[in-house]
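Run log, item B.
One chain of 478 residues. Sequence copied directly from the ordering sheet:
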Amino acid sequence: MLLSILLPPILSRSLTPYDLSIWMLALQVANYLIVLNLGLQIVVARLVAQAEECGDTLKRNSIISTAFFSVLIVTTFGTASLYYLINTFHWTSPSIQIESLSSLNTTVSWIAASFVIWLPSSLLLATFIGQQRNVWYALAMFVTRIILLLVVSAAAYTYQNVVDIAKSWFFATTVGSICILILHHLKVDNSRISLRLFSKSQLLHMVHNSFTISIWSILSLIVTGGQVFILGLYELESVGIFASALGLATVMIGVSGAINATLVPIIAARLINNRKALPVDDLVRISVVSNVINFGGSATLALGGWWIAKFWLGDIYSEDGSIIIGAVAISQSLRSCLSTYAMAVIGLGLQNKLLVGPIGEGFLAILISCLLVPDLGVYGIITAMLTSPMINIFFTLATNPIRQQDDNFHIYGYFWKCCIIPSLPLIAIVIYIVGMGFGGLRSPLAGFAALSVGAGYAFWAAHSFFWHKNHGSAKTGY
């Protein structure tokens, strides 16, 4: 999240708009390797929580070792395959200059190589999530991101070249991964990572449990990364501002995602102890707080988009940025409004029941993008992002997997309280902006309103968290 906020303004002032778009496109192509972690982090956290609840250290170490070496092997193969593909087949795009192809390929290769180191090492942090020691997880992520930010920023100011920036990315990732290995060794009692602890049965169990999560990850990249790639083929100059807006919107998703992930080990531990697995009060409390953060962030970005683009990325990006930043943020809020519910489903081990929605969302997003981008450019992408989440929302409400564990769980009451009500101020703001015209976003009043709305949503989030924590949720459909 630090990188999404602090790195784009540094790069936008060190690189030309064209080179910034080349960097963002290369980063997104390399990001496809993220799917090679097989969606294991959440599953490993769940399995570690169960092993810790039983006091089985050997099983915990076997789980971590199996996941670590599996991801290491898969990412190494995936990176080698990507390197072969980008150097064998030429990019065909009217918007990419021939002389930029070599820089693009080299940049992709360096970033991709960093994932071979980062993905296996970052998987070790799932141990802390499973042990419900989230402070160490947060600290590790903070330190590694700070290292990456400082090194890449120094390279950007010094070299102002995408290839050198990519090399610095690889170096900083290596240093951060070493820090994670040291932290895991020092802070996890009796920790051991060894090929001798690799277990085929554990691997099969993980793959079975992570299949749906892997599909979610792939489709998430299709919805975001695939659209960046499509935009790069037709309108490369817009990739920089669009990808930066996407990264900014990801900040609020990351905050709410970190909150949502705390549900998984809680539910997993309850299952081991044969208690009622679904903590409804916690689910409602976390859902409300998560969506208040999501929709509050979207409302703030929608109102303050012009000012944010102007001071964050520079004057050259302010005009298009005012619309793109707000629209991308709103689309990300729609995609994640039921993410807390999804985490609860994962904790219950019912994630396979939520497979249809993300598949439909992914295919619809790509279909709309392919149809509209050639004529509308970045606004075709925005249209796809705003409409495709509706399929996933519809199928989640229709299937309601939690009902299998709790007959009294009313998903429509949950959806009204935890999703619709937090979104009402955002809906009113969008109606106001469309009615008054986007030109009004340039006024200082819009900037002040954005700050006021953000502060109001922050107070709402804090109040919801502490009120529900002390009083619980209503028992009759919320």
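Observations after the first pass:
- The radius of gyration is 22 Å.
- The CA atoms of residues 298 and 330 lie 5 Å apart.
Flagged for discussion on Thursday.
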